[in-house]
Each structure stands twice: as structure tokens, then as C-alpha cells.
């Protein structure tokens, strides 16, 4: 049963009938996860946090991919409007002493303008990806769809071993599985009320 990071590594060698090193196996899994992060958009990736914002720049949570909704947790709640980094630095850089109206993403930080005149709680709904490691031995995708993890990692293993035919075979399986995941998630969301201030802005 593929139910952990170590079990996935063992399964990779077993399925490929090889004896790749642990370091190489972890690289293959990491490359597969890079694809997941780019391509999968699923409700299991949604999270929410409170950011304590007292300056123009605040660190984003670990695993952040994109914003789903964002607002000042004031009374009444105040949505923050997205602007591009270029717009932000043209219009808001150096501003201070006000209640934030806009936000942008700069690297691993969120930036708000004008610079806050006091500490604010910003409610952030976002998509995240939590990668496997020796300390994080499972996540929602491995728990629910271990076949997708295995197939994507096998594609990377065979690419590394210069076997394009097998790599392409597993790539096709993974692409089909990801399409099914995304389509199923879209169907589920179609019956739900839309999320507030929805945005698919990708962080950099």
C-alpha cells in the first residue's frame, strides 16, 4: 500500500524493477510535485489564514500558490483589490498612514497599499501545495490518489533513465488523471455559492 513518502519510494523501485538511490527517488517525486503544483486545482488545496499586517510587506504562508479571496477583517469587512506589481510600485510604493485598499504579490510576500496606519488582520483564502518529505510523510493527494503520485514519479524516473517511450506512457496517464481531478472539482464547485472576491492570481 502506497500511503507514505517512504512507501512511495519503495514502490517506485519495485514497479520499475530498479534500485535507484533514495536521493534520486526523492528527486523524481519532487519533479512530479512541481507538475502537480502547476496543473492541479482542487478544493483539497484550499486553506485560510489570518495575516497580521502592520507594514506594507508581510510574508505569505508556506506552500502558497494563489489567492482565492482576501479582505481586511474589519467591521464591515473590506475586500482588497488586486493590482499588478507594476501598478503597485507606480502608485503605492512609499505610501503610508492609511487603511489598505489594494494588494499585490512580490516573491514570497504580500504587499498592501497604502502602508497600514495600524495593525490589521487580513483574512486570506488561498491555494497551497504541501510537498512530501521525511517529516511530512503524506498529503491529500497521496492519501486519496496514490496512483497519480506513482505514475508521475515513474514518468520522471524513466525520463532520467533515457526511456522516452515509458516516460510518455506515464505522462499520458498523469495528464488524464489530472484532467479528471480538475474536472471533478469544477463540477463539485458548480453547485456551491461562489467564493468571495475570487482570484486565481499566481504568486511568483
Tell me, what's the shape? Answer: elongated
User: How many structural domains in the coordinates?
Assistant: 2
Number of DSSP helices?
6
Q: What percent of residues are in strands? A: 15-25%
Please tag this protein with its features.
204 residues; alpha+beta; 2 domains; four-stranded antiparallel beta sheet; four-stranded mixed beta sheet; 6 helices; 8 strands; disordered C terminus
Structural description of this entry:
The protein is built from 6 helices and 8 strands. With 204 residues, it is of the alpha+beta class. The chain has 2 domains: 5-42 and 132-190, no CATH class; 44-128, no CATH class. It has a 4-stranded antiparallel β-sheet with strand order 1-8-3-4, with no helix packed on it. It has a 4-stranded mixed β-sheet with strand order 2-7-6-5, with no helix packed on it. The longest helix is centred in the last third of the chain and has 27 residues, at 164-190. The two termini are 36 Å apart. The model is unreliable at 193-204 (pLDDT under 50).
Amino acid at each position: 500500500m502506497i500511503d507514505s513518502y517512504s512507501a512511495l519510494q519503495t514502490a517506485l523501485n519495485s514497479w520499475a524493477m530498479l534500485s535507484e538511490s533514495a536521493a534520486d527517488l526523492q528527486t523524481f517525486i519532487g519533479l512530479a510535485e512541481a507538475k502537480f503544483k502547476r496543473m492541479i486545482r482542487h478544493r483539497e488545496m484550499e486553506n485560510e489564514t489570518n495575516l497580521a499586517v502592520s507594514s506594507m510587506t508581510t510574508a505569505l504562508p508556506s506552500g502558497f500558490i494563489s489567492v482565492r479571496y482576501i479582505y481586511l477583517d474589519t467591521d464591515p469587512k473590506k475586500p482588497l483589490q488586486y493590482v499588478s506589481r507594476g501598478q503597485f510600485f507606480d502608485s503605492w510604493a512609499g505610501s503610508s498612514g492609511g487603511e489598505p485598499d489594494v494588494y499585490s504579490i512580490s516573491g514570497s510576500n504580500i504587499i498592501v497599499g497604502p502602508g497600514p496606519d495600524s495593525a490589521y488582520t487580513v483574512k486570506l483564502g488561498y491555494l497551497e501545495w504541501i510537498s512530501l518529505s521525511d517529516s511530512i510523510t503524506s498529503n491529500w493527494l497521496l492519501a486519496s490518489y496514490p496512483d497519480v503520485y506513482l505514475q508521475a514519479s515513474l514518468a520522471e524516473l524513466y525520463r532520467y533513465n533515457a526511456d522516452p517511450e515509458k516516460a510518455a506512457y506515464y505522462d499520458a496517464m498523469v495528464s488524464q488523471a489530472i484532467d479528471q481531478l480538475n474536472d471533478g472539482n469544477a463540477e463539485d464547485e458548480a453547485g456551491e455559492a461562489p467564493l468571495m472576491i475570487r482570484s486565481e492570481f499566481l504568486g511568483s
